[in-house]
Every structure is written in C-alpha cells, then in structure tokens.
User: Fold these one by one.
Assistant:
Number 1:
Amino acid sequence: MDYLNGITLILNYIFIPGLTYGSQLALGALGITIVYSVLRFSNFAHGEFMSFGAMSSILLSWLFMSFEINIHPLPTAIMVLPIAVLLTITYCLIVDRLVFKFYRQQNSKSVINLIVSIGVMFFTGGLIRFIVGPGDRNFFDGERFFLKARTFKNITGLNEGLTLKTTQGVTILLSVFLVIVLFWFLNKTKTGKSMRAYSDNKELALLSGINPEKVVLITWIITGILACVAGTLYGLDKSYKPFTYLHLVLPIFSAAIVGGVGNPIGAIIGGFVIAFSELIITFAYKKIFFYFLPAYLVPEGLLQILSTDYKIAISFVILVIVLLIKPTGIYKGKIL
Amino acid sequence: MTNLARIKISYFLMITALIVVGFLQSWNVALTIFNLCVISSIMTLGINIQWGNAGIVNFGVMGFAALGGLANIIISMPPTSNAWNVGGEMIIIGLMIFTLSVFFSIILFKKSNLNNRVKYIISFISIISGYFIMRFLVDVPIEKIEAIEPAKTGYLGGFNLPVLLSWPVGGLLAAFSAFIIGKISLGLRSDYLAIATLGISEIIIYFLKNEDWLSRGVKNVNGLPRPVPYEIELQSKEWVLKVSDYLDIPITELSSIIVKLSYSILFILVLLIILFLLEIAVKSPWGRMMRAIRDNEVSANAMGKNIKQRHLQVFIIGSTIVGLAGAMLTTLDGQFTPVSYQPLRYTFLIWIMVIVGGSGNNFGSIIGGFLIWFFWVQSEPLGLWFISQITTYISDTNIIKSHLLENAAHIRLMFMGLILLITLRFAPKGLIPEVKR
C-alpha cells in the first residue's frame, strides 16, 4: 500500500506535470527547430509568436464568452483555437514578407537573421503589451478537473490523491495529435517531402524544381500553428502574462538544442528532458522516502537537490552540459 | 559624408537634445539620463570590441554587469560581524571543494587517456559527490548566516574598502567568469554561442537572486557607500549656499545636481580612458589581426593566427569592460537589485546600441549608447504624447482611448524593435560606419 502511495505521489507531482510542461516545451521547440532547419536561423521571436497566439485566443475567448457560446466541460479557448491559429499564421506571414524575406534574398549570415529576429521580438512584445496590457490574464473557463484528488482517493482508498487538470489532459492530447499530424505531413505528403529536401540541400532542391517561396510559406504556416497552440496551452495551464513568454523562449531554445537543433524528434525529446529534469531536480523527496523506507531510515530536511527558485536555471545548466559534451545535441540535427 | 562629419554632427545633436531636456524638463533629469547614457556607452564599447572587431556574439551582457554590481557589495559594504563566526569559512571551503571536483573532471578529460565511458562515469561521480559534500558543509552555515538580522543583513558582507575600488574589481570578476564561459562556449557556432552566453548569464543572475548569504538575493543590498558626497552634506557647505544664491536655484535641487555632476565627471573619465585604450588597440596590429580573423577565419588560421586564443582574449577584454560598467551602474544606483537585471530586455538594448551606432566603430558605439538610452527613457512620454495626439478626436470616456493611453508606455518596446529593424534594413553599417583601414 505504501508503495502504491509513493507511486501515486510521483505520478501526481512529477509525471503528469512533467508530461504537460514537456509537451508545451516540445511544441515550442518544434517551431524553433523547423524555422532553423528551413530558414537557417535561430528565431528569438518565437516566444513572442507564442505570446501572440495566446493573446489571440484570449481575445477571441472573451468575445465568445460574452456571447455565452462555449463547449462547457472544455475551455472556450480550445474552441476558438482554429481562428487564433489563423491570426497567428497571418502575423507570421506578414512579418516574413516585411522583414525576413529581404535578408533571405540577400543570403545574409545567420547571425544577422538572429539579430533581426530580436528586433521582431521587441516589436511583437511591444505590440502585445499595447493590445492586452502587461498584466496577468486568466482566460480559463469550464470544468477544472478531469479527475479530482478526492474522487481518486475514494475509488482507490489511497492516502495520496491523483489529480488530472483539464488543461493538463487537453495539453497532452492536443500535443500528441499535432505531433502525429506534423510527422505524417513531413514524411508522407509531397509538400512535406519537398520541405525536407529543401532543408537538406537547398541547391539540389531548387534544381529539382521545388518552389522555395512555397516551402517558406509552409514553414511559417507550421510555425504559426505550433506557436499558437503551444502558447495557448501554456497560458491555459499557467495563466497568461506577456513577461513570462519573453522568458519562455530560453527553456525552449534549451530544449531544441539539447535534442539537436533541426531535428523534430530531438525537439520533442529535448522538451521532455528539460521539463522532467526541472521537476526531478527541484522536487522535495521527503514524502517519497517516507513511503518507501522504514521510518527510522527517513532522513531529515526536505531532501531537495536544488531549491525551486532555480527551476528555470536548470534548463541552462543542462544546455551548458550538452554543449560541452555533445554540441550536436542528443540527435544530430540540421535536417528535418 | 565623411565619418568625421558624421561624428561631429551626431555628437552635437545629441548634446543639444540633452540640453533641450535640461531646459524643458529639468537639469536633474538631463543629468540622470546623461549618466546612464555614459554607462550604456561603456557597455556598448565592450560589446562592440567583441562583435564589431571580432565577430563574437556575446548575449551575456547582464550577467557580467550583475557581477560588476556584486563587486560593489564585496568591496564596499562592512562585513557582517557575526557571519564569519558562524561558519562563513565553511561556505568558502564548500565552494572550493565543489570547484575542485569540477576541475578534477576537466583535467581528467583533457589529460588522461582512459576510454570515454570511464571518463564520463568518473567525472559524474566526482561532480555529484563534490556537490553533496558542499551541501553537507554549507547548508547549516548558510541558514545561520541568513538568520542574522534578516531584515538588515543576513549575508556575509564585504571588506569595507573604498567603493571606487569595486570598479576595477568588478571588471576582474567579469574577466574571470568570461574566461570560464569563453573556455566552455567559444568553440561553438555563432548562434549557439549567443544562446549559451545568454543562458550562462541567466544562471549567474539566478545565483545572485537566490543566494542570500552572498548578496541578500531579492531582498537587495541598500545603502552602498558613495564615491561622491551626500546631498545633505553639501547643503550645509558654505560655497554651495553661495552658488545657490548666485544662480537662484533651490539648494535641494542644486545639491543633487552637484552630486550627479560629480558622477558624470567620474564616468566621463572612465569612458575616455577606455575609448583611448580601445582606439589604440583597434589601430594596432592586434586590431588588424582581429578583423582579419573576423572576415576570414580560415585564411587567418592559415597565416598562423591562433583563433581560439584570440577569440578568448577579446571575449575577456570586452566582458571586463561590461563588468566595469556594471559596477559603475550599481554605484550610481546606490543599491544592488538582482531582479533589475533582465537579460532578455537590457542585453538586447545594448545590442541595439551597438548596431545602431555602427558596429566596428568605437565612436559609433558611444553615440549609439547615448541615442538609444535617450530614446528608451524619452519614448515613454513620447509614446503618451503620440497616442493622445492620434486620439484627440475620440471622447475621453471612450473605452478604447483609455485603454490605449494606459498601455502607451509599452510603445517603447515597439519603437526599439522598429529602430533596430530599420537600421538593419536601410543602414546596416549604422550611424557611423566602420573605418576602412
């Protein structure tokens, strides 16, 4: 029984939150990876694109809430997601047309593109704050839990509860769905194959008649979808604040690099590596030892490896270690 | 236009703008802006020598600046009397043990010829055990130190030395960490290097935010000593009273102007010295070598230049300058607030300064620092003015208008992004382009 309690504790505090946060990071990292492998630069504006997507969802769900149109047990934001995705894609395409296209035609170095993306980041950040303001926005409605702690305790008779928030369930399901669609698209469709060919060898792809503008267009559409969904899910799960999105770009970059920039599978793995290590390293293990060890062996103190304040710093520590040991990341990247 | 003409015109316009602020707003505001402009220019010079002359992307500006700020505490604050008795040395010993365990694994990797898997296992064990030994030694003393009057001290304190000494020490701290960071990350490709430096500077700032025994963390260290007299002291001085009568300025205002002016003089001195040294460096064979490496690493390598060493060198030099500027910034503020170092915002602000001023030109960096900081400060009222202008015909009770006015301050982020994008698009060489030598 004690062991079951311990396992429930791990599931509740590490496994489910890790899976949720990991999916959010993975979606973000996928966006960065895809831009990197096709357009060949690190897109610092991705965090703000996510923020833009989340902002669109917020504004739309407010609109729909005021008309009292909803899909009750699920949050309204999920219903408006397709429209928000369209808005984000439009924004990405406008930015590309006005800003990135010029440097692509000039064949600029990737560092220049990176600095340009910082300009886009500043501008988008300002625009978002200008539209919704810098404050905290909560846009969650609907049922809060799929599975409540008390229901779980009643069913199983355990001391420890297991909760599954609606946002967590939705995040995980939606991410799995998106990733499956993405991989199907990249591997099975003609357009997806042409994208992979373009990212693998630009000149050869051009020679075989692939239209580069179309590839770029598709890239931004995919980026827009991923950014909007990831941003909205993160906002639903944690609450939306423009400032946190500015900082979210760093763990996302860590995830992309840890997995191997340019490799979609790597991005997903990287996201989960970052998410789980953040949780595992900052978790207080006292209670778990309490269930697994006889009472006289349980040590004193919280038994944390690092205090929770260092949560975000952990992703950089992992990043530095990976860069030191294996700069190419877990999966060697560069091609889709 | 020749570069000299550009320098003359832009510097003249910048100074005029500051004087206009002096007349329109107040001299106090103008001098506050001016002081921060000088500090930003120094930071910009530090980044410019890395990016403009050597092509190294360093996004760790805020980390180095924060280390400079830390130097202020270590040098100038009085030591907390009890802290060293309850186990301050233990913390030092613990940190040393951990560092040794890390060094051991580095040396293991470099020198020994064991096979790779064994190396990984040994170094993993060494670092983990080093970490836990450190925690074992350090945890109790840290708790005790943080318990000493947590509202006032609760940290180790410093050496109670003159605060001006903290400027070079801040530079040295930054140089030391730049050495380590450079060793880790300079071998990487440019955009990896950018993210790595950004990440490491975040780690530094997280450390300063959370290690209360060192810098009081988010509780901030207030009341750092000053290199210039206090306003109160000045107000009782004979000559200040006379000047105040003569110029017909209220004594409180005059005293704060005098304080700010003395800061300005100190800062300008530092700026001139650094500018002088950098100009010599850039014109020397060393500068030519750096540019050669920047423009074509392969051929520079073929000419027998040690690219890794040179990159490390210039990385340390630039970071030292940033650290020095960071120390000056904290001295000017009179307090150390780790939360105010926001890497993603201020690091990139410095970068905008470099690009707008003209990468590769020291005089350009200075005007870039002045111009962008000036805009950063002034675009808030400017944005408000702009919004109220375009909404004049909307009634005051309109919800859209009040919303727009409320968020007008954020227009400055958009301004900054636009300035950067426009510069990169239409004048990629910046206001004052690099001199062709």
Note: Residues 26 and 271 of chain A are 4 Å apart (CA to CA).
Number 2:
Amino acid sequence: MTTAAPKRELPTRHAYGETLVELGREDDRIVVLEADISKSTQTYRFAEAFPDRFFNVGVAEQNMMCMAAGAAICGRIPFVSTYAVFGSMRACEQMRTSVAYPKLNVNIAVSHAGLTAYDDGVTHQAVEDLGIVRSIPNMTVLQPCDAPSTRKAVRAAVEIDGPVYLRLTRIAMPILYDDNVDFQIGKAIRLRTGGDVTIVAVGDMVFQAREAAERLAAQGIEVDLLDMHTIKPLDVDALLDSATKTGAVVTAEDHNVLGGLGSAVAEALGEHCPTPLLRVGLQDTFAQSGSYGDLLRHYGMDASHLVEAAQRVMRRKQ
Amino acid sequence: MTTVSQPGIKDTTQELARWARLLRYDTLRMISNAASGHPGGCMSMAEILTCLYFHEMKVDPQQPDWLDRDRFILSKGHCAPILYAALARKGYFPVDELRNLRKIGSFLHGHPDISTPGVDMTSGCLGQGLSAAVGMAMAGRIDRRDYRAFVVIGDGEMNEGQLWESAASASHFRLDRIIVVLDFNALQFDGTVHEVSNPGDVRGRWKSLGWNVLEIDGHDIPQILDALRQADECRGRPTIVVAHTIKGKGVPFMEGDYLWHSLMDNDLLTSFVKEMHDELQRDPDGFDADRLW
C-alpha cells in the first residue's frame, strides 16, 4: 500500500476531467458525451482538446445514455458524464437495457455522489445510486476516494469489457495516494492493519474512516481499514480475511445504508462468515441542504460517529 | 443490392411483394408456434422491412460484423419476429431456427438483442432506438465511414419523451445518414393513437426540429423505395419517412383492430397460418413452396 502525506485537495471529478484528456490523446476511440454540465463534470477540458469527439446533447440524459450505446457498438469507447442522480436514475432503464444488457464498453462517470453535493440539496444528492446500479447485471461499480486513485479508475474503466459506473465527488478530497497507487478493480486497498475491528469504507467516507481509526488507535483499538473502492465486484476475500481476524465490522458510505456498500458487505458476511456489523451511512432518509461537514455530523456519518459505531460493534463480539 | 431475380417474377416490386408475403407467413407462424408475440405491428411493417433488407440496405450476411454495413435498429422492438424472419431469409441464420422464437436456449429472444446474428442493436424498451442511431451515426462520421443507420419506430413510441430528445440531437448534429421510418398504423396497445395520447401534428413536429419529412403509403413498395432513395440523397439533415400503414395488414381479422397488437386468439391465428401455408404451397412459380416450413 502506498500513501502520501496529504499535499493538496482536489474533487475527484477534476481528476476525471484531466484523465479524459490524457486518454483522448492516447486512444482515439475515446468519445465523451455530456448533458450540459461540462464545466461541472470537467468534461469541458476534453471538449477543448478534442471537439470532434465531444458531444453535448443538452439536458437529455436518457438520449445521451443510448447514444453512448450506439457509439460503443460501432467501436467507440464512450464516457457518459452527468450527475449521479441523473446517470443512475433519470437514465436508469436506458443504462440497464441499452448498455448493461448488451454489455457494452460504456463508462458512466457521475459527479455529485451522496452528500458531496451538499448545499444543492436532495435533488442533486444521489444516495440511492449504488444500490440501483449494483443490482444491474454486467455492471462494474467504482468510487475511488481521491484524485490519484480516480485517475487509475478512469483508465481501468476503459480496459473493462463492459459498462462501468464511476462515482465522483463534487467537493475536494484530500490526496491520499501517490501516483503509483496499485488500483485494481475488485481489489480493496488496506489502509491500516489492525486486529480489533474492521472498517470498510468507500469514496469520501474513506477520510472519515481514517480519522476514526486514528482516534480509536489513541484508545488502544486497532482498526483494519479497507478502502473498498470497488462496490461491485466486491473484494469478498479481503473482507472475509479481515472480518475473520477482527470479528466485528463497520461499513462507511456516503449513501443510504440500503443497497450500497453496507448491504453488499452484509450479504457477503451473512453468506460466508456471519459477523457483528454496523452500517454507517444515511439511515434510509433523504438529507437536506447544508455544508458537507454539517450534513455528515447531522446524519451520523462523521469520524466521531464511526468511532462510536466501532466501539458499539466491538461489544457485540462473541 | 437487389436480390437475384426469381424465375417467373417480372420486376423488383413484384419480387419484393413476394418477400413481404413470405415474411408475413414466417412471422405469423413463429407467433403461432410460440403462442406469444405482437402480430399487428409486424404486419404493418412487412413492406417497409422487406424494402430495407431486400433492396435498400448495404448488408452482407456472410460478414455480419462488416464495419461499413448499414445499421438497422428496430426501435419498436416488440416486432422482433418479423425482423428475425427477414434476417433468416437473408441468410444470417437457418430458417429452421424460427421455430424457436421465445424458447429457452434460442437467440430469438422476445425482443431483439445484439446476441442474435444480424441484430445491430438491443431494443424493445420504446423510445431508445433513435438515440442509439445517433450514436452510431456520430461514430460513423468520426470514422469517415459512409454507412447509414435505419430506424423503424412505432407511432406509440411518439409518447416517449426520449424520442424527441433524440430527434433534436439527430438534427442538431446534422446526421444525414440517419433514416427513420415511422410505421404509422395509428393504433397502439390500448387503442388508437388519438385515444391514448394526442400525437399532434406529426409532420410538423419532425419538421420543426429540422428533419426532412416524407410521407407515403407504407404498403406501396414503389413509394417506399422512392422515399428511401430521396432520404439517401438528402444532405445536412436526417430524414423521417412517415409511412401510413394498416395494423394487421394482410390478415383480414387483424386489420385495423388494436386488440391484435399482441396475440389475441391463437386458435384463430393458427388456422389462418395453415390456410396461408396451403395457399403459398400452391403458388405457380415455386417461389414460396420451396421456402415453406
């Protein structure tokens, strides 16, 4: 595991936009489709560099999703860019039928994951998308936590022969990894090794989990911390190894606890290795507008709540 | 691109009419066998599909993945049986496979999917086909390939919002290699298009978005061929051929009855298929008799 000391911050959507330009230079099969929010999704960078391979379809996400399918069938590698709410829900059936069913290499990159959309409010906070997308056959589902792992994820998505859903943040994320991070789809990254409790985190919640692990360490509790950047296919081996060792698991996701990482982990543990589990995330509620920090605190998703969850779940160990 | 003329058949129109009749037979027999399917809309597009596959489209069943081939998208995917009939008759797969429509293990799914030889796009969830054609045409433009993307849409599909998103995009990107044929039989699942949802001024809606709009009798083969030629010559904008058709065309008890959108009475259909079989077997020139199943 390679980590670097935090140097600066960057929204993962920026890393996506930058990587698209690199990819566009390297591979002329890459095309980018956009639904009128290119300055937000950062695809404007690709648009400037490769105007002939950039298609802004206007505010028409369903059309965009199926256009990408048509382009993929004709040998192109499309990236579809929009917000997670629209990519996973407005264009859900299009993604399922026209992209996932024929297993096309369409990469659906969506910004404004969960509460990272913060003061835009519920309309733009996707807290259901992981559950929806994860249940669609043939889909690969990713949420890297920082810019370097996002750059790797964007490249890995191209290599996957099938659709990829890539969840990105509106807000800046600290830089956790260095540029040589060993990011492999379906392989969790162990950020801390410990024997007392497992925390499995995804996306922006990786940073809350790191802080929680440090606080727990100060209390003498050693956390086994996994960055589960791939929600599907879930790294069940890494999860079971850790759960067997610690005997207690907490999941941390910026998403409803129904359907997302917590559910995926519960499914795997339930089938293979029943283990006390607490799922930290939105407790089946919509959030509201507010600052990101205030929202995490209010909905019980910040580092303090993770510390509490870890302590509680440890008490349930047999 | 015309298929080799058959002995005893005078001209292209007559030959295409024979193919259309055979596709009708294949389709009805498939639906009758499967005891499930959507015959009405298949019958209304028989001449349209025949003109595309047996005359207009540049395709090669020996090379189904040929990059320069014209693409076909059956956006009204519930009419898969007649597409399968056309593909089988073109030689993408044996006609015998048509016995397996909707059966487990067969690639003749209830609605089209790219896993079927010759099928260019998965479809069946209405309103999506034209969007895929826009993606195909833009890929073709980048690749400097001259293929066309043909789409057959149903009139019920005009209820779908996405159709109008894609109509705007095709025109916005000036994709003149897109040719849509609207199978305008004026009936949808629950009734006439006017009873279900106001279709408005159909010509006007497409025209206002910048499309080249042609209007024909969708059962008149010379009119279809002429419209497809005009569409091919049109530059700078996509073309829609509004083809007025009769739902259930060719099957007296089905014609104009929206209840036959899907299979209503399989005993009635099966006896009709038997009659049609006998009639085709008696044909004087052997065109049909040699091809019957």
Note: The radius of gyration of chain B is 18 Å.
